[in-house]
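Journal club prep — side note

Before the paper discussion, L.F. wants everyone to see what a predicted structure for a comparable chain looks like in C-alpha cell form. Sequence:
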Amino acid sequence: MSTQKPGSFSPILFDYLKKYQEDPKSRVFAPLAEAYRRAGMIQEAIEIAREGLRVHPNFIGGRVALARALFDQKEFDEVMTELGDVVREAPDNLVAQRLFAESALMLGRTLEALGAYKMLLYFNNLDKDAERMVRELEIQAYDQGAMVLRTDPAPQKVVHSIKSARDAIDSDERVIKQKKFKQVEVLQSALVVLERYRAGLER
C-alpha cells in the first residue's frame, strides 16, 4: 500500500480513502482505485480493486477500475480476463468494451478486437475511431485467413444416401402392407356408413 501521508493526497482521493477506511466492505473501493490510478499510484489502485472485488466479485464498476489500472501497467492478458464476462453480460459498457478491444489489439488477437470494436460501433455509430478500426481489422482478418470473403457460389451440399429412422421404417415391406390394410379398413368403414345413410333416406 502507499507510503504517502494522507495529507499529501488530492482532496477527492483523501475523501474516498476516508470512506473506505470507515467501511472496507463498501463499493467505494472502485472510485478509490480510479483515484489512485489517476494519481499515478497504479499498484495501489490494483491492490485496492482486487481487495474490493473479493467482497463484491460481480461488481462491474470494480472490474472496470481494476482493468484500467492493469491496462496502464500493460497487463493486457489480465485486462481481457477481468473484462471477459463484463463485455458479454453488459455489452453496452463502452469503457469495458474499449479496454477489451485495445488489449486484444495489443496482443494481436484480431478477431476479439474486431468483435469489441464492432460492439462499440453498434452502441455508438458516430464513433469514428471504432469505425476506422473495424475497417482495418476486417482487412487484417481477411489477410490472415481468419475471415473468408466468399465471391464464388457456395459449394452444393453432398446429399448422403443414409436414410432417417422414419424413412427406414416407412420403407419396410411389413409396414407398407399394414398401412395398406389400414387404408382398406378405413375405406370399408366409410362405405358401410354411406350405405346406412342412403338406406335411411329411402325409408
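L.F.'s comment for the group: The two ends are 108 Å apart (CA to CA). Keep this in mind when we get to the figures.
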